[in-house]
Amino acid sequence: MFTWDWKKKLIVWGFIFVVSIAAGCFAVLYQTPERTNEIYKAALEDFNKGEYQNSYYLFSKISFISNLKPVAIFHRAECAKMLGDDEAELRQYEFLFNTYPKHKLSIKARYLAAQKIMKDNPQAAQKYFEYITQIAPNTDYAIASEYYLGVIFKNKYQNASAEIKNDIVNYFRQYIKQAPSGRLAINAVNNWLEITDNISQDDYFLMANSCYLLGEYEKAKELLSKTDSPQSWIVDVKNSYALKDYGRVKSLAERGLSEYSSNADEGEIIDVIDIYSSIYGSGNLSAFVTGKGRDYLMYLKCQRTSDKIACYNDLYSKYPNGRFSANALSNIFFSKIKSGDIQTAKKLGKEHLSKFSNTNSAPMVMFWLGKLAERTNDYVEYSNYYRSTIENFPDTYYAYRAYLRLKRMTGPIITSYLNPQPVVYPYNYTKENIIVKLVNLGDYDIINEFAGDDEFIKSWLLYQKGDYSHSMMKARDAMEKIKDKPDKFDLRWRLVYPILFYDEVQKYAGETGNNLPLMLGLIREESYFDPMAKSVVGASGLMQIMPATANEINSKFSLGMNISDALFNPVENIKLGNYYYEFLRKNLEGYDISSVAAYNGGIGSLKNWRTSINYNDTDEFVEQIPYPETKNYVKKVFRSYWNYVRVYSGNS
Asked: How confident is the model at residue 14, as a pLDDT?
């Protein structure tokens, strides 16, 4: 028998043993955050170098108490995939979604696992796909799961009953409805057509639309022939245009516009009018456009008629709340300014701001109301209008012009100084979260899974991959959707207006006496910083220079370039563009507004406008440039210029 002393000793030794085991487990599980980051970064570097075996091992060393562990498990699956180890890949996916069922990567892991086992274990794959459609119904993974469930059931029931066929077809239908231009849409169409020929006109249209969107025009044509014209005529017009069947475009458009337009979306009606007009002109369409689209036809007429103001008056009186009414009223407003009818102009301007406060023409009207108040020396009124323009539309061309008026600056130059700041992750956080942690570790590819619908994060990821043009476009579109713009210090502005090729632009702008931020703005609008950009007419490179112009500048300034190589060489293209701009500027008395207009419209046209247009100042000149493309170009370039100055030098 054990004495009490022995029992106490056993208890003590037992306690020591348990503590030792616990301490050992803790030592295995615990890592300092610094050590975890060190291991993770090393694993990521090995993965990027193609050393997948070592990366697989290192990712296993990430502590279970770190929020990086689920991501590390996912990366282990990726390593196994690259090594061709299907079993290990599947094992890691299952480990991830079983251990961390609510983690964002778990849905993707389950989806990839289901794809992996579809052939050998369709029953298990079916359960995985069904789980995804139930748990994450609005995700891309759920939409794609609908397609794969259709494939599984199609393979399972080779001689299915009509009822089962309907169930199978519904999976493909749901996929096409939710992702008409998805990468699996054509496969869904083909599978659907293999299952049954008992297909409704609505479903044929659904399939035809997907084929059109994915460029399968001949197949779309075949499917469209089995649809109901009132429903499908717009897609048929677009598809026929893609096939260059212009006779069919004409007959479909004329009939559709006259008979079926009442149930169509106005935007699609405009698309049809544009297609028709590009082939036949819009002149004879008025006989067919009897409902939706008539205001657009009037708007097109106003663009080409000599008596534009009478046309805009007619448009606004007939369609005072239409899609093009704000534009029409702003043109009428400016015509009253030009004719000297200031009281009517003020009345129309205030009406515009009351009715169309968030339209593209609102900043123009607000700015010009300020100029009208300035003419009568009403300091309070014009200051309020100018400040309101800057506050409500801070990133626009008119905010730039309002800034100049407030500061009493007579020329377009604000500053040649910029403090270039790098594009960084577009949000500031007071504490580190998983996205910021992954950013700091440089694990960019995986961040998409955490970004959700945030277009700025997606823009940032494109930027990190060197796709600057698409990054800017995505950020630009995202910023346009924000009604109340963030302040100039917001990091998202750097994505919309990044500074690229700064050293080269600084060098050649300085060499030629050009304004540095203006050259950045010009490059942004010309090519979105894509060195390989080429227009349909042959303008090439960052500054979109025509070969003939490049040869002329090369010779004139003795630059000694091989033009065939120089156009797509970023450094030489920037040099050519700056010397060309210097040539324009020196021939136009140093005026940047005129030089930018000439860069787009040609120096001959610009000199002709300066003598033929009746204007008192720069603002009146810009509003009356007769080429809409050049007028908009000037505003876009100076808008970019203004934002480079605003974001990177502190002006506001």
From this structure: 55
